[in-house]
Amino acid sequence: MIFRLLLLFLCFGMAQPVLAQLRAQDGIVALEDGDIPTALSIWTPLAERGDVLAQYNLGVLLAAGEADSADLQQARHWFEAAALQNHLGAQQALADLLASQQEWEAARHWYSVAARAGAARAQFSLGKMLERGLGGPSDSQQAVAWYQAAAEQGLRDAQFALGAALAELGDVEAAADWFEAAALQGHVTATHNLALALSRGIGRNQDMSMARQLYLTAASAGYAPSFYNLALMQAQGRGGPQDFRKALALAIVSERLGHNGASALIDALHEVMPTDEIRQAEALADECQTDPGSCG
Question: Which residues are the signal sequence here (predicted)?
Fold first, then answer.
């Protein structure tokens, strides 16, 4: 991944002197050969002369992997040098590094700079900081605006965050739209929330069959609340046939995964099921956990 990032940003270096471009490319070749010291020796003098791509590349290289505090300090220096030359990737990388060190005010500044330049992930991160009041006052209205800017660029985490924020504000139909957008990109919690909206007819026409299918999709990713809700639907016969044995097996999996309400459902099912079916359900639980579709 690091090599791709470096190569991507080198592609924008055509205005550099030809020699600098060639030397920078030598650094890429050295890095691909696993020769990090040579890559550092090539990029460092270029960076010291103000080459923005070398500065960014050095920052990426120094911050990668198990970087120690000295490496991170050097990475910060080069990211900042490139960020001050309006390198968008460096601005976001610097903000990420500052946030990881809980320097919230400085991180918020650089996320803001990158967000205004159109970086979707920076827009999302700025929204989170505004929502939580990190690095400055909280501002839920501005948080929603930045979530939306990132969501409209297709960033699925922003789509989910926007859906959650809109649900809090009572705009359930728009929330369901954004949960659906994130779910289509594989966001597990968004998939669960969309299923919840469909099962209750909140912001969507009620569709138990589709809700059940979406819970199954999220359960297949190991999401405990979806196992639990799928168990409820099996027990109540909503969205498909009623099956206490599968419902109990799913509830057992949900409890294993730490869902707080699962034990009460298990107790309720024990009260209405014969002993032999309870044993069958307990034997089925492992299969349900490995392959939720077999119990969905």
Answer: 1-20
What angle, 0 to 180 degrees and rounded to 10, lies between the N-to-C axes of helices 188-200 and 156-168? 40
pLDDT tens per residue, range 251-274: 999 999 999 999 999 999 999 999
Closest CA to 259 of 296, 215, 295: 215
Q: State the alpha helices, DSSP H only, in 133-171.
A: 140-151, 156-168
Q: pLDDT for 72-128, tens place per residue?
A: 999 999 999 999 999 999 999 999 999 999 999 999 999 999 999 999 999 999 999
Task: Provide the domain count of the chain.
Answer: 3
d(CA 209, CA 151): 28
Q: Is residue 131 part of a domain?
A: yes
Buried b (16+ CB within 10 A) or exposed e, 113-136: bbbeeebbbbbbbbbbbbbeebbe
Write out the residue range of the structural domain in which residue 32 sits: 1-83
Distance CA 136, CA 193 (A): 30
